[in-house]
Amino acid sequence: MKQKILILITIALMLSSGCTLNKSTPTQSISNHTNKSCQTSANGFQTKKIKKSYIPKYNVSNTGGNFSNHDLIYFIMTDRFYDGDTSNDNFPDVNKKDAKAYHGGDLKGIIKKLDYIKSLGTTAIWITPVVKNEPKGYHGYWAYDFYKVDPHIGTMDDFKNLVDEAHKRNIKVIMDYVVNHTGYNSPWLKDDTKKDWFHTKLNITNWSDQKQVENGWLSGLPDLNQENPEVRKYFIENALWWISKTNIDGMRLDTVRHVPKEFWNEFAHAIKEKYPNFYLLGEVWNESTHYLEQYHKLGIDGLTNYSMYNGIKNAFTRFGQTDSLINAIKQETNFSNPEINGIFIDNHDNMRLISMAGKHGKEYLKQALTFELTYPSIPIIYYGTEIGMQGKSDPDNRRDMEWNKTKKSDILDFYRKIVDFRNTNPALQTGDFKLLDYDSYFLSYMRKHNNSSVIVVMNLQNKNKNVTINVPQNNTKFKDLLTNKTYTLEHNKLQLMLKPLDLIILESN
Ligand SMILES: [Ca+2]
Ligand SMILES: [Ca+2]
Protein backbone atom coordinates (compact mmCIF):
# COMPACT_ATOMS: atom_id res chain seq x y z
CA MET A 1 0.00 0.00 0.00
CA LYS A 2 2.78 2.40 1.06
CA GLN A 3 4.63 1.60 -2.17
CA LYS A 4 1.50 2.33 -4.27
CA ILE A 5 1.10 5.76 -2.66
CA LEU A 6 4.78 6.53 -3.29
CA ILE A 7 4.40 5.62 -6.98
CA LEU A 8 1.29 7.81 -7.31
CA ILE A 9 3.08 10.76 -5.67
CA THR A 10 6.06 10.29 -8.00
CA ILE A 11 3.82 10.28 -11.09
CA ALA A 12 1.97 13.39 -9.87
CA LEU A 13 5.27 15.19 -9.33
CA MET A 14 6.46 14.24 -12.78
CA LEU A 15 3.33 15.54 -14.44
CA SER A 16 3.43 18.81 -12.51
CA SER A 17 7.05 19.39 -13.53
CA GLY A 18 6.14 18.92 -17.22
CA CYS A 19 8.36 15.88 -17.66
CA THR A 20 7.68 13.05 -20.04
CA LEU A 21 8.73 9.45 -19.88
CA ASN A 22 10.61 9.96 -23.10
CA LYS A 23 12.40 6.64 -23.08
CA SER A 24 9.30 4.44 -23.28
CA THR A 25 7.04 6.86 -25.15
CA PRO A 26 9.42 8.72 -27.44
CA THR A 27 6.81 10.45 -29.56
CA GLN A 28 5.36 12.32 -26.56
CA SER A 29 8.47 14.42 -26.28
CA ILE A 30 7.78 15.97 -29.68
CA SER A 31 5.17 18.21 -28.11
CA ASN A 32 7.62 19.05 -25.33
CA HIS A 33 9.91 21.55 -27.07
CA THR A 34 12.87 21.34 -24.74
CA ASN A 35 16.03 19.30 -24.56
CA LYS A 36 15.41 18.51 -20.93
CA SER A 37 14.58 15.13 -19.49
CA CYS A 38 13.59 13.96 -16.03
CA GLN A 39 15.88 12.38 -13.53
CA THR A 40 15.21 11.05 -10.07
CA SER A 41 17.38 12.64 -7.43
CA ALA A 42 18.82 10.76 -4.47
CA ASN A 43 15.95 11.79 -2.22
CA GLY A 44 13.39 10.46 -4.68
CA PHE A 45 12.19 13.84 -5.97
CA GLN A 46 12.09 14.62 -9.66
CA THR A 47 14.42 17.30 -10.91
CA LYS A 48 14.70 18.92 -14.29
CA LYS A 49 18.14 18.43 -15.74
CA ILE A 50 19.70 19.16 -19.11
CA LYS A 51 20.02 15.84 -20.93
CA LYS A 52 23.55 14.51 -20.98
CA SER A 53 24.98 13.51 -24.34
CA TYR A 54 24.56 9.86 -25.21
CA ILE A 55 27.36 7.58 -24.07
CA PRO A 56 27.89 4.83 -26.67
CA LYS A 57 27.25 1.30 -25.46
CA TYR A 58 29.72 -0.26 -27.91
CA ASN A 59 33.24 0.88 -28.60
CA VAL A 60 33.49 0.58 -32.38
CA SER A 61 36.73 0.76 -34.38
CA ASN A 62 35.98 3.44 -36.98
CA THR A 63 39.20 4.66 -38.51
CA GLY A 64 37.94 4.33 -42.09
CA GLY A 65 38.47 0.64 -42.87
CA ASN A 66 39.54 0.38 -46.50
CA PHE A 67 39.19 4.14 -46.96
CA SER A 68 41.66 6.95 -46.34
CA ASN A 69 42.25 10.49 -47.56
CA HIS A 70 43.88 8.99 -50.67
CA ASP A 71 40.39 8.11 -51.86
CA LEU A 72 38.19 10.15 -54.13
CA ILE A 73 34.46 9.42 -54.23
CA TYR A 74 32.36 10.09 -57.33
CA PHE A 75 28.70 10.48 -56.38
CA ILE A 76 26.14 9.33 -58.93
CA MET A 77 22.38 9.69 -59.03
CA THR A 78 21.82 6.49 -61.00
CA ASP A 79 18.61 7.56 -62.76
CA ARG A 80 20.25 10.74 -64.08
CA PHE A 81 23.64 9.38 -65.14
CA TYR A 82 23.49 7.12 -68.17
CA ASP A 83 20.81 4.95 -69.78
CA GLY A 84 22.59 1.68 -70.46
CA ASP A 85 19.48 -0.46 -70.87
CA THR A 86 16.39 0.84 -72.65
CA SER A 87 14.41 -2.32 -71.84
CA ASN A 88 13.67 -0.89 -68.36
CA ASP A 89 12.39 2.47 -69.65
CA ASN A 90 8.78 1.40 -70.22
CA PHE A 91 7.32 2.10 -66.78
CA PRO A 92 4.54 4.72 -66.68
CA ASP A 93 6.59 7.00 -64.41
CA VAL A 94 9.49 7.35 -66.87
CA ASN A 95 9.34 10.78 -68.48
CA LYS A 96 12.51 12.65 -69.40
CA LYS A 97 10.61 15.92 -69.66
CA ASP A 98 9.46 15.74 -66.03
CA ALA A 99 12.25 16.73 -63.60
CA LYS A 100 10.49 14.74 -60.87
CA ALA A 101 10.04 11.48 -62.81
CA TYR A 102 12.42 8.70 -63.80
CA HIS A 103 14.71 9.49 -66.74
CA GLY A 104 16.01 6.03 -67.65
CA GLY A 105 19.51 5.94 -66.14
CA ASP A 106 20.44 2.59 -64.68
CA LEU A 107 23.10 0.31 -63.17
CA LYS A 108 24.13 -0.97 -66.59
CA GLY A 109 24.67 2.65 -67.58
CA ILE A 110 27.13 3.11 -64.72
CA ILE A 111 28.95 -0.08 -65.77
CA LYS A 112 29.29 1.29 -69.31
CA LYS A 113 30.78 4.52 -67.99
CA LEU A 114 33.21 3.02 -65.45
CA ASP A 115 36.24 3.82 -67.61
CA TYR A 116 35.22 7.47 -67.76
CA ILE A 117 34.64 7.42 -63.99
CA LYS A 118 38.07 5.86 -63.45
CA SER A 119 39.66 8.55 -65.64
CA LEU A 120 38.50 11.16 -63.10
CA GLY A 121 40.82 9.75 -60.45
CA THR A 122 37.89 8.01 -58.77
CA THR A 123 38.66 5.30 -56.22
CA ALA A 124 35.05 4.80 -55.08
CA ILE A 125 31.55 5.49 -56.34
CA TRP A 126 28.60 6.35 -54.14
CA ILE A 127 25.33 5.57 -55.86
CA THR A 128 21.87 6.70 -54.75
CA PRO A 129 19.73 4.00 -53.01
CA VAL A 130 19.09 0.93 -55.15
CA VAL A 131 16.09 -0.44 -53.20
CA LYS A 132 12.70 -0.69 -54.85
CA ASN A 133 10.90 2.63 -54.50
CA GLU A 134 7.30 3.71 -54.83
CA PRO A 135 6.29 5.35 -58.15
CA LYS A 136 8.33 8.46 -59.05
CA GLY A 137 11.05 7.64 -56.51
CA TYR A 138 13.73 8.23 -59.16
CA HIS A 139 16.18 9.40 -56.46
CA GLY A 140 15.82 6.20 -54.43
CA TYR A 141 14.87 7.74 -51.07
CA TRP A 142 11.22 6.54 -51.04
CA ALA A 143 11.69 2.85 -50.20
CA TYR A 144 8.88 0.40 -50.90
CA ASP A 145 10.77 -2.90 -50.54
CA PHE A 146 14.11 -2.97 -48.71
CA TYR A 147 15.04 -6.38 -50.12
CA LYS A 148 14.65 -5.66 -53.86
CA VAL A 149 16.54 -3.69 -56.48
CA ASP A 150 14.31 -1.12 -58.14
CA PRO A 151 13.36 -2.46 -61.61
CA HIS A 152 13.80 0.99 -63.18
CA ILE A 153 17.55 0.81 -62.54
CA GLY A 154 18.02 -2.91 -63.11
CA THR A 155 18.29 -6.22 -61.29
CA MET A 156 20.26 -7.72 -58.44
CA ASP A 157 22.54 -9.29 -61.05
CA ASP A 158 23.17 -5.85 -62.56
CA PHE A 159 24.13 -4.54 -59.14
CA LYS A 160 26.50 -7.47 -58.51
CA ASN A 161 28.02 -6.95 -61.97
CA LEU A 162 28.52 -3.28 -61.22
CA VAL A 163 30.41 -4.12 -58.02
CA ASP A 164 32.53 -6.74 -59.84
CA GLU A 165 33.33 -4.46 -62.77
CA ALA A 166 34.14 -1.56 -60.44
CA HIS A 167 36.43 -3.78 -58.35
CA LYS A 168 38.27 -4.89 -61.49
CA ARG A 169 39.19 -1.22 -61.96
CA ASN A 170 40.11 -0.72 -58.29
CA ILE A 171 36.97 1.31 -57.69
CA LYS A 172 35.10 0.63 -54.46
CA VAL A 173 31.31 0.83 -54.25
CA ILE A 174 29.33 2.73 -51.62
CA MET A 175 25.62 2.04 -51.37
CA ASP A 176 23.33 4.78 -50.12
CA TYR A 177 21.27 3.41 -47.25
CA VAL A 178 18.15 4.83 -45.60
CA VAL A 179 16.78 3.65 -42.25
CA ASN A 180 15.03 6.84 -41.15
CA HIS A 181 11.89 6.49 -43.22
CA THR A 182 10.01 4.57 -45.87
CA GLY A 183 8.28 6.07 -48.89
CA TYR A 184 4.91 7.78 -48.36
CA ASN A 185 3.00 4.67 -49.42
CA SER A 186 4.92 1.88 -47.71
CA PRO A 187 2.89 -1.36 -47.48
CA TRP A 188 3.95 -1.47 -43.80
CA LEU A 189 1.58 1.43 -43.05
CA LYS A 190 -1.35 -0.92 -43.65
CA ASP A 191 0.23 -3.92 -41.97
CA ASP A 192 -1.30 -4.62 -38.52
CA THR A 193 1.84 -6.49 -37.43
CA LYS A 194 3.91 -3.35 -38.03
CA LYS A 195 1.80 -0.82 -36.13
CA ASP A 196 4.69 -0.11 -33.75
CA TRP A 197 7.22 0.27 -36.54
CA PHE A 198 6.51 3.98 -37.03
CA HIS A 199 6.55 7.03 -34.82
CA THR A 200 3.29 8.93 -34.43
CA LYS A 201 2.83 11.30 -37.34
CA LEU A 202 4.17 14.74 -36.41
CA ASN A 203 6.01 17.36 -38.41
CA ILE A 204 9.40 18.67 -37.34
CA THR A 205 8.81 22.27 -36.29
CA ASN A 206 11.63 22.89 -33.83
CA TRP A 207 14.97 21.91 -35.37
CA SER A 208 16.90 22.48 -32.16
CA ASP A 209 14.80 19.85 -30.37
CA GLN A 210 16.80 16.67 -31.01
CA LYS A 211 13.92 14.37 -30.02
CA GLN A 212 11.71 16.04 -32.57
CA VAL A 213 14.44 15.90 -35.20
CA GLU A 214 14.75 12.16 -34.53
CA ASN A 215 11.10 11.21 -34.25
CA GLY A 216 9.25 13.67 -36.46
CA TRP A 217 8.21 12.84 -40.02
CA LEU A 218 10.86 14.51 -42.20
CA SER A 219 9.09 16.09 -45.20
CA GLY A 220 6.05 14.08 -44.15
CA LEU A 221 7.84 10.74 -44.74
CA PRO A 222 6.72 7.86 -42.46
CA ASP A 223 9.29 7.86 -39.67
CA LEU A 224 10.57 4.46 -38.57
CA ASN A 225 10.66 3.73 -34.86
CA GLN A 226 14.16 2.48 -34.05
CA GLU A 227 13.28 2.25 -30.35
CA ASN A 228 11.38 -0.87 -31.39
CA PRO A 229 13.85 -3.81 -31.24
CA GLU A 230 12.09 -5.46 -34.21
CA VAL A 231 12.88 -2.42 -36.38
CA ARG A 232 16.50 -2.36 -35.25
CA LYS A 233 16.87 -6.07 -35.95
CA TYR A 234 15.23 -5.75 -39.38
CA PHE A 235 17.56 -3.01 -40.58
CA ILE A 236 20.76 -4.48 -39.17
CA GLU A 237 19.93 -7.81 -40.83
CA ASN A 238 18.94 -6.03 -44.03
CA ALA A 239 22.21 -4.05 -44.18
CA LEU A 240 24.29 -7.18 -43.52
CA TRP A 241 22.30 -8.98 -46.24
CA TRP A 242 23.12 -6.32 -48.84
CA ILE A 243 26.82 -6.43 -47.94
CA SER A 244 27.02 -10.23 -48.12
CA LYS A 245 24.99 -10.43 -51.36
CA THR A 246 26.77 -7.71 -53.29
CA ASN A 247 30.28 -7.36 -51.82
CA ILE A 248 29.98 -3.57 -51.53
CA ASP A 249 32.71 -1.67 -49.66
CA GLY A 250 30.81 0.97 -47.81
CA MET A 251 27.51 2.63 -47.06
CA ARG A 252 26.57 6.27 -47.16
CA LEU A 253 24.04 6.55 -44.36
CA ASP A 254 21.16 8.89 -45.12
CA THR A 255 19.57 11.36 -42.66
CA VAL A 256 21.75 10.18 -39.78
CA ARG A 257 20.76 12.96 -37.36
CA HIS A 258 17.10 11.96 -37.75
CA VAL A 259 17.71 8.54 -36.22
CA PRO A 260 18.41 7.94 -32.50
CA LYS A 261 22.08 7.62 -31.56
CA GLU A 262 21.47 4.27 -29.82
CA PHE A 263 20.55 2.79 -33.18
CA TRP A 264 23.68 3.99 -34.98
CA ASN A 265 25.93 2.69 -32.25
CA GLU A 266 24.31 -0.76 -32.43
CA PHE A 267 24.28 -0.65 -36.25
CA ALA A 268 27.96 0.33 -36.60
CA HIS A 269 28.94 -2.29 -34.03
CA ALA A 270 27.07 -5.06 -35.90
CA ILE A 271 28.47 -4.09 -39.31
CA LYS A 272 32.06 -3.60 -38.18
CA GLU A 273 32.08 -6.78 -36.12
CA LYS A 274 31.49 -8.77 -39.31
CA TYR A 275 33.16 -6.42 -41.81
CA PRO A 276 35.91 -4.47 -40.00
CA ASN A 277 37.14 -2.87 -43.25
CA PHE A 278 33.72 -1.58 -44.24
CA TYR A 279 33.42 2.21 -44.48
CA LEU A 280 30.46 4.10 -43.05
CA LEU A 281 29.92 7.65 -44.32
CA GLY A 282 27.22 9.45 -42.37
CA GLU A 283 25.17 12.29 -43.76
CA VAL A 284 24.81 14.62 -40.79
CA TRP A 285 23.42 17.87 -42.13
CA ASN A 286 24.70 20.31 -39.54
CA GLU A 287 27.41 22.94 -39.62
CA SER A 288 28.69 22.39 -36.08
CA THR A 289 31.81 20.22 -35.84
CA HIS A 290 30.91 19.30 -32.24
CA TYR A 291 27.49 18.11 -33.38
CA LEU A 292 29.01 16.13 -36.28
CA GLU A 293 31.69 14.53 -34.12
CA GLN A 294 29.03 13.00 -31.82
CA TYR A 295 28.11 10.67 -34.68
CA HIS A 296 31.70 9.67 -35.31
CA LYS A 297 31.89 8.66 -31.64
CA LEU A 298 28.98 6.24 -32.22
CA GLY A 299 31.04 4.22 -34.70
CA ILE A 300 30.44 5.94 -38.03
CA ASP A 301 33.78 6.49 -39.82
CA GLY A 302 33.43 9.60 -41.97
CA LEU A 303 30.86 12.38 -42.02
CA THR A 304 29.69 14.62 -44.81
CA ASN A 305 31.53 17.72 -43.64
CA TYR A 306 28.79 20.37 -43.68
CA SER A 307 30.96 22.66 -41.58
CA MET A 308 33.47 22.82 -44.43
CA TYR A 309 30.70 23.01 -47.04
CA ASN A 310 29.37 26.12 -45.35
CA GLY A 311 32.83 27.68 -45.57
CA ILE A 312 33.26 26.62 -49.20
CA LYS A 313 29.97 28.08 -50.37
CA ASN A 314 30.62 31.39 -48.64
CA ALA A 315 34.14 31.63 -50.02
CA PHE A 316 33.72 30.47 -53.60
CA THR A 317 30.49 32.15 -54.63
CA ARG A 318 29.40 35.73 -55.09
CA PHE A 319 30.08 36.44 -51.38
CA GLY A 320 33.80 35.79 -51.91
CA GLN A 321 34.54 35.85 -48.20
CA THR A 322 36.96 33.52 -46.47
CA ASP A 323 35.77 34.01 -42.86
CA SER A 324 33.59 30.93 -42.48
CA LEU A 325 36.03 28.75 -44.43
CA ILE A 326 38.90 29.82 -42.15
CA ASN A 327 36.66 29.13 -39.19
CA ALA A 328 35.74 25.67 -40.53
CA ILE A 329 39.44 24.84 -41.06
CA LYS A 330 40.23 25.87 -37.48
CA GLN A 331 37.28 23.84 -36.19
CA GLU A 332 38.68 20.67 -37.77
CA THR A 333 40.53 19.98 -34.50
CA ASN A 334 37.13 19.07 -33.02
CA PHE A 335 37.11 15.91 -35.17
CA SER A 336 39.06 12.88 -34.04
CA ASN A 337 39.47 11.67 -37.67
CA PRO A 338 38.86 14.63 -40.01
CA GLU A 339 40.85 13.02 -42.84
CA ILE A 340 38.20 10.33 -43.40
CA ASN A 341 35.36 12.84 -43.64
CA GLY A 342 33.92 13.63 -47.03
CA ILE A 343 34.31 17.20 -48.31
CA PHE A 344 32.14 18.38 -51.17
CA ILE A 345 31.20 21.44 -53.14
CA ASP A 346 28.03 20.04 -54.73
CA ASN A 347 25.43 17.40 -53.95
CA HIS A 348 21.85 16.45 -54.78
CA ASP A 349 20.38 18.55 -51.96
CA ASN A 350 22.00 21.90 -52.68
CA MET A 351 22.24 24.31 -55.58
CA ARG A 352 25.34 23.59 -57.63
CA LEU A 353 28.19 25.92 -56.68
CA ILE A 354 28.71 27.21 -60.23
CA SER A 355 25.05 28.30 -60.33
CA MET A 356 25.25 29.79 -56.86
CA ALA A 357 28.32 31.80 -57.88
CA GLY A 358 26.63 33.30 -60.93
CA LYS A 359 28.72 35.68 -63.03
CA HIS A 360 32.18 34.36 -62.11
CA GLY A 361 30.99 30.76 -61.67
CA LYS A 362 33.83 29.15 -63.63
CA GLU A 363 36.59 30.95 -61.74
CA TYR A 364 35.01 30.18 -58.37
CA LEU A 365 34.39 26.55 -59.34
CA LYS A 366 38.09 26.18 -60.23
CA GLN A 367 39.11 27.66 -56.88
CA ALA A 368 36.63 25.45 -55.01
CA LEU A 369 37.76 22.30 -56.86
CA THR A 370 41.37 23.19 -56.07
CA PHE A 371 40.56 23.59 -52.40
CA GLU A 372 38.61 20.32 -52.31
CA LEU A 373 41.35 18.37 -54.10
CA THR A 374 44.26 19.79 -52.10
CA TYR A 375 42.64 19.46 -48.65
CA PRO A 376 43.51 16.37 -46.56
CA SER A 377 40.06 14.71 -46.56
CA ILE A 378 38.09 12.54 -48.98
CA PRO A 379 36.75 14.65 -51.87
CA ILE A 380 33.24 13.73 -52.98
CA ILE A 381 32.65 14.84 -56.58
CA TYR A 382 28.97 15.02 -57.55
CA TYR A 383 28.47 13.82 -61.14
CA GLY A 384 28.65 16.74 -63.58
CA THR A 385 30.69 19.05 -61.36
CA GLU A 386 33.78 18.02 -63.31
CA ILE A 387 32.25 19.48 -66.49
CA GLY A 388 30.77 22.55 -64.80
CA MET A 389 27.12 21.50 -65.01
CA GLN A 390 24.63 24.11 -63.85
CA GLY A 391 21.79 23.36 -61.43
CA LYS A 392 19.63 25.38 -59.09
CA SER A 393 17.61 23.88 -56.21
CA ASP A 394 16.29 20.30 -56.22
CA PRO A 395 15.32 18.87 -58.72
CA ASP A 396 17.25 21.22 -61.07
CA ASN A 397 20.52 20.11 -59.42
CA ARG A 398 19.71 16.57 -60.63
CA ARG A 399 19.75 17.19 -64.38
CA ASP A 400 20.76 14.39 -66.72
CA MET A 401 24.53 14.08 -67.06
CA GLU A 402 25.63 16.21 -70.01
CA TRP A 403 27.78 13.64 -71.79
CA ASN A 404 28.45 15.90 -74.78
CA LYS A 405 30.49 18.18 -72.49
CA THR A 406 32.85 15.37 -71.52
CA LYS A 407 34.32 15.56 -75.05
CA LYS A 408 35.42 19.17 -74.73
CA SER A 409 35.37 21.08 -71.48
CA ASP A 410 37.72 23.67 -70.08
CA ILE A 411 36.60 22.76 -66.54
CA LEU A 412 37.21 19.04 -67.18
CA ASP A 413 40.75 19.75 -68.46
CA PHE A 414 41.39 21.80 -65.34
CA TYR A 415 39.85 19.13 -63.09
CA ARG A 416 42.04 16.39 -64.59
CA LYS A 417 45.18 18.48 -64.10
CA ILE A 418 44.45 19.05 -60.43
CA VAL A 419 43.43 15.43 -59.80
CA ASP A 420 46.66 14.17 -61.40
CA PHE A 421 48.59 16.59 -59.24
CA ARG A 422 46.74 15.39 -56.13
CA ASN A 423 47.45 11.75 -56.92
CA THR A 424 51.16 12.16 -57.65
CA ASN A 425 52.45 14.96 -55.44
CA PRO A 426 53.90 13.64 -52.12
CA ALA A 427 52.90 16.78 -50.18
CA LEU A 428 49.28 16.42 -51.29
CA GLN A 429 49.31 12.68 -50.60
CA THR A 430 50.58 12.77 -47.04
CA GLY A 431 51.65 16.28 -46.15
CA ASP A 432 50.38 18.40 -43.28
CA PHE A 433 47.96 21.21 -43.98
CA LYS A 434 48.92 24.65 -42.75
CA LEU A 435 47.10 27.92 -43.19
CA LEU A 436 49.50 30.69 -44.27
CA ASP A 437 48.42 34.33 -44.50
CA TYR A 438 44.84 35.27 -45.26
CA ASP A 439 42.32 38.04 -44.89
CA SER A 440 38.59 38.19 -45.62
CA TYR A 441 39.15 38.12 -49.38
CA PHE A 442 42.33 36.15 -49.94
CA LEU A 443 43.57 32.80 -48.75
CA SER A 444 46.90 30.96 -48.79
CA TYR A 445 47.84 27.58 -47.39
CA MET A 446 50.56 24.99 -47.63
CA ARG A 447 50.85 21.20 -47.73
CA LYS A 448 54.28 19.87 -46.85
CA HIS A 449 55.94 16.49 -46.68
CA ASN A 450 59.72 16.28 -46.22
CA ASN A 451 61.25 18.30 -49.06
CA SER A 452 58.07 18.50 -51.06
CA SER A 453 55.67 21.37 -50.57
CA VAL A 454 52.69 22.92 -52.27
CA ILE A 455 51.40 26.44 -51.71
CA VAL A 456 47.95 27.49 -52.89
CA VAL A 457 46.99 31.15 -53.11
CA MET A 458 43.53 32.42 -54.05
CA ASN A 459 42.15 35.91 -54.56
CA LEU A 460 38.40 35.75 -53.95
CA GLN A 461 37.61 39.22 -55.20
CA ASN A 462 37.30 40.55 -58.71
CA LYS A 463 40.09 43.08 -58.27
CA ASN A 464 43.89 43.18 -58.16
CA LYS A 465 45.61 42.59 -54.86
CA ASN A 466 49.22 42.67 -53.69
CA VAL A 467 50.11 40.23 -50.94
CA THR A 468 53.18 39.24 -48.96
CA ILE A 469 52.93 35.73 -47.58
CA ASN A 470 55.11 34.41 -44.79
CA VAL A 471 56.27 30.89 -45.62
CA PRO A 472 57.94 28.89 -42.84
CA GLN A 473 60.47 26.98 -44.90
CA ASN A 474 63.77 27.21 -46.66
CA ASN A 475 62.92 26.10 -50.18
CA THR A 476 63.48 29.12 -52.30
CA LYS A 477 62.06 28.17 -55.70
CA PHE A 478 58.51 27.31 -56.69
CA LYS A 479 56.80 26.68 -60.00
CA ASP A 480 53.17 27.50 -60.77
CA LEU A 481 51.34 24.35 -61.91
CA LEU A 482 48.96 26.36 -64.11
CA THR A 483 51.33 28.82 -65.79
CA ASN A 484 54.81 27.28 -65.28
CA LYS A 485 55.93 30.66 -63.98
CA THR A 486 58.65 30.43 -61.31
CA TYR A 487 58.71 32.26 -57.99
CA THR A 488 61.48 32.82 -55.50
CA LEU A 489 61.18 33.00 -51.72
CA GLU A 490 63.12 35.87 -50.18
CA HIS A 491 63.68 35.84 -46.42
CA ASN A 492 60.77 33.39 -46.09
CA LYS A 493 58.46 35.81 -47.81
CA LEU A 494 56.55 35.33 -51.02
CA GLN A 495 55.51 38.53 -52.77
CA LEU A 496 52.65 38.19 -55.22
CA MET A 497 50.59 40.49 -57.37
CA LEU A 498 47.27 38.73 -57.60
CA LYS A 499 44.95 39.28 -60.54
CA PRO A 500 41.16 39.39 -60.03
CA LEU A 501 39.92 35.96 -58.83
CA ASP A 502 43.45 34.63 -59.22
CA LEU A 503 44.42 31.06 -58.44
CA ILE A 504 48.10 30.16 -57.98
CA ILE A 505 49.23 26.61 -57.24
CA LEU A 506 52.93 26.47 -56.42
CA GLU A 507 55.02 23.32 -56.30
CA SER A 508 58.48 23.32 -54.75
CA ASN A 509 61.28 22.70 -57.22
CA1 LIG B 1 17.18 2.46 -68.66
CA1 LIG C 1 13.49 9.45 -37.47
TrEMBL record:
**Domain Glycosyl hydrolase family 13 catalytic per the UniProt entry, residue ranges:** 75-422
Keywords of this protein's UniProt record, alphabetized? Calcium, Carbohydrate metabolism, Glycosidase, Hydrolase, Metal-binding, Signal
CDD domains in the record, alphabetically? AmyAc_bac_CMD_like_2 (cd11339)
- Annotated signal sequence is 1-22
Cofactor(s) recorded in Swiss-Prot or TrEMBL: Ca(2+)
Q: Which GO terms describe its biological process?
A: carbohydrate metabolic process
Enzyme Commission identifier(s): 3.2.1.1
Q: What class of enzyme is it?
A: hydrolase
Q: Name one GO molecular function term.
A: alpha-amylase activity
Q: Which Gene3D superfamilies match?
A: Glycosidases, Golgi alpha-mannosidase II
Its UniProt entry gives the catalysed reaction(s) as:
Endohydrolysis of (1->4)-alpha-D-glucosidic linkages in polysaccharides containing three or more (1->4)-alpha-linked D-glucose units
Q: Of which family is this protein a member? A: Belongs to the glycosyl hydrolase 13 family.
Record protein name field: Alpha-amylase
- Source organism of the structure: Clostridium tepidiprofundi DSM 19306
